[in-house]
């Protein structure tokens, strides 16, 4: 990544004397203090951005003009939610190891400053990978030197476990952050589930995404530890109508009817939390559910095409609803075959998950394929890392997943092995703000 202008280092390699920062750059306060507080690149908006509006309304969502360009970090909502889904993912869940509230707040401030820099194609700290004293550890790990921003977005969330008695946050736990119920058939592995804090890094270059998470973990040393992480490739949903619908590892188009950034009214209703929901600090935020879904793809690959399409409720080539010709044709759940059977089976995946059967509950899905090697028995450890955003998981994800868990024939070919639930706070407004400030006010 390109290096920001740095103070000249004096002879002997000593740490340079603090100077007034240039526009867009922050002061170096201490090795554990804030660094890079500037709003460098905050106003960068690629070609095709939605026209600017007041932050009191829905904010503009930038469309990078190329895969190497940056997205703005600052805004009413965090980037990486309705941002057009990038090609690569590095997701991490942290456990907070400090029990000092002030240290947690300091960390969130440092992370926000670093994230503002990283998402604009800069190094994590103002001294970078090679600009500081040779005797000290670098401010950046260096593996992304020379790489562009690659559309990097960083999105943070807070798990239910953060709202215990360690930091005085119990009274601020949102009702919508209620623990998920146990769903029939799930086989969750505790070691790769949950977490106090999560960070979702999405980019078009996997090295850029990994670099961002690596540097946040480095900055957090002594205050957080990595609980689990997941790499993903090949987005499994579209979050903009400008994107084509991708395919999951079962070969079917995934996320045809996903919420899109262009659906302004639905986003206000279904995605963004409101102060009237009961937790004022979450206004402008949303709730994230993650599920690692292992696919028994060898068994699926031996299943007939006809059965595969009946299980899903769409044809495999075009992605059209059964009985229709085009992917975006309206699903018709009343259509019958010549012998009186439903064209789309009563237990087809698309029927069980459809908003019309769940009080018009929509999800904004943002999942990724994964392949984590083999399981030692000649089978790929592969599947879908499901990510969904919504206004209230109790009314949205839980309703949909309970229906799927009970009767979806797809369950013969999948198993849920990891689960996460996180409150995603509103965006960082400017360089004086930080991730989660409203929670700690």
UniProtKB/TrEMBL annotation:
<keyword id="KW-0408">Iron</keyword>
<keyword id="KW-0349">Heme</keyword>
<dbReference type="GO" id="GO:0030313">
    <property type="term" value="C:cell envelope"/>
</dbReference>
<dbReference type="InterPro" id="IPR006313">
    <property type="entry name" value="EfeB/EfeN"/>
</dbReference>
<dbReference type="InterPro" id="IPR048328">
    <property type="entry name" value="Dyp_perox_C"/>
</dbReference>
<feature type="domain" description="Dyp-type peroxidase C-terminal">
    <location>
        <begin position="245"/>
        <end position="428"/>
    </location>
</feature>
<dbReference type="GO" id="GO:0004325">
    <property type="term" value="F:ferrochelatase activity"/>
</dbReference>
<keyword id="KW-0560">Oxidoreductase</keyword>
<dbReference type="GO" id="GO:0004601">
    <property type="term" value="F:peroxidase activity"/>
</dbReference>
<feature type="transmembrane region" description="Helical">
    <location>
        <begin position="34"/>
        <end position="56"/>
    </location>
</feature>
<dbReference type="InterPro" id="IPR011008">
    <property type="entry name" value="Dimeric_a/b-barrel"/>
</dbReference>
<dbReference type="InterPro" id="IPR006314">
    <property type="entry name" value="Dyp_peroxidase"/>
</dbReference>
<dbReference type="InterPro" id="IPR048327">
    <property type="entry name" value="Dyp_perox_N"/>
</dbReference>
<keyword id="KW-0456">Lyase</keyword>
<dbReference type="Pfam" id="PF20628">
    <property type="entry name" value="Dyp_perox_C"/>
</dbReference>
<dbReference type="GO" id="GO:0005829">
    <property type="term" value="C:cytosol"/>
</dbReference>
<dbReference type="GO" id="GO:0046872">
    <property type="term" value="F:metal ion binding"/>
</dbReference>
<keyword id="KW-0812">Transmembrane</keyword>
<comment type="similarity">
    <text>Belongs to the DyP-type peroxidase family.</text>
</comment>
<keyword id="KW-0472">Membrane</keyword>
<feature type="compositionally biased region" description="Basic and acidic residues">
    <location>
        <begin position="17"/>
        <end position="27"/>
    </location>
</feature>
<comment type="function">
    <text>Involved in the recovery of exogenous heme iron. Extracts iron from heme while preserving the protoporphyrin ring intact.</text>
</comment>
<keyword id="KW-0479">Metal-binding</keyword>
<dbReference type="GO" id="GO:0020037">
    <property type="term" value="F:heme binding"/>
</dbReference>
<dbReference type="GO" id="GO:0033212">
    <property type="term" value="P:iron import into cell"/>
</dbReference>
<keyword id="KW-0575">Peroxidase</keyword>
<feature type="region of interest" description="Disordered">
    <location>
        <begin position="1"/>
        <end position="27"/>
    </location>
</feature>
<feature type="domain" description="Dyp-type peroxidase N-terminal">
    <location>
        <begin position="78"/>
        <end position="233"/>
    </location>
</feature>
<keyword id="KW-1133">Transmembrane helix</keyword>
<dbReference type="InterPro" id="IPR006311">
    <property type="entry name" value="TAT_signal"/>
</dbReference>
<keyword id="KW-0732">Signal</keyword>
<protein>
    <recommendedName>
        <fullName>Deferrochelatase</fullName>
        <ecNumber>1.11.1.-</ecNumber>
    </recommendedName>
</protein>
<dbReference type="Pfam" id="PF04261">
    <property type="entry name" value="Dyp_perox_N"/>
</dbReference>
